[in-house]
Amino acid sequence: xxxxxxxxxxxxxxxxxxxxxxxxxxxxxxxxxxxxxxxxxxxxxxxxxxxxxxxxxxxxxxxxxxxxxxxxxxxxxxxxxxxxxxxxxxxxxxxxxxxxxxxxxxxxxxxxxxxxxxxxxxxxxxxxxxxxxxxxxxxxxxxxxxxxxxxxxxxxxxxxxxxxxxxxxxxxxxxxxxxxxxxxxxxxxxxxxxxxxxxxxxxxxxxxxxxxxxxxxxxxxxxxxxxxxxxxxxxxxxxxxxxxxxxxxxxxxxxxxxxxxxxxxxxxxxxxxxxxxxxxxxxxxxxxxxxxxxxxxxxxxxxxxxxxxxxxxxxxxxxxxxxxxxxx
Length: 328
Ligand code: F6P
Prior knowledge:
alpha/beta; 11 helices
């Protein structure tokens, strides 16, 4: 089929993630390679509504591959959730002559794209950009690998002080409702226990296993708690519960928070962002629309937005087993 796309808009939306700049760069340079015009849209869907646009060429994205955050900035737009807001956004796209969009973000970004297409039949390709790794249909999201490395580096430091003081540390990590960051960084950092929303181990059995490991000679411990975990919902209460029920351990809490979203992207994230950026333009030129480009078993795939946003994060049971065995 003949392709009529001449001008593409690119935006980043939702929580930022390391590698978003590399992703924008890849989109812009793929456009240049294919003789397409490219327009950067600032502050995600918010900027689409405000008409906050800037033409980008291959040189506009120099010296960006190594930078964290997103130079286009990001937002969680409340106005885009309204029909009126989306209508203004559509009118802006038409008056700017933009034929298609590439949106880089998480499930909220793709939900917005899905509704927008239903209303205006507008071609959009999504790229998964979130530290949470909670998007269906892709093995990895852009930013996840960097966040894992940030968490492991932080826990290595906590381990030094935990060991010096014979303390038990609870370290809270991000991930919203997904335990991927906690589980993988927990294994990588040698955690004693890992609490994730996908598996409820209960406070009692947590204390029981801590008691066993103390008896076996452990003098300090790290427990990684995902922010979405049921018993981790209030990490300070869990800390108190442990102190009350396991005598002889001083407990401290560290909430890693937004440092997990910043920093220079890892090589893995830069490569993923570059591959998916190229794939997003390839997909548009192949007349695909309203799909996310992702990676499955090292190969590029396209997944309808409706599939990509399907909740229920699936955790690899083998990883849980590895974590259990390592904490003996
Ligand atoms: O989706 C990315 C994420 O960092 C989640 O892990 C976290 O729950 C949320 O965003 C925090 O959002 P905000 O930056 O808006 O507080």
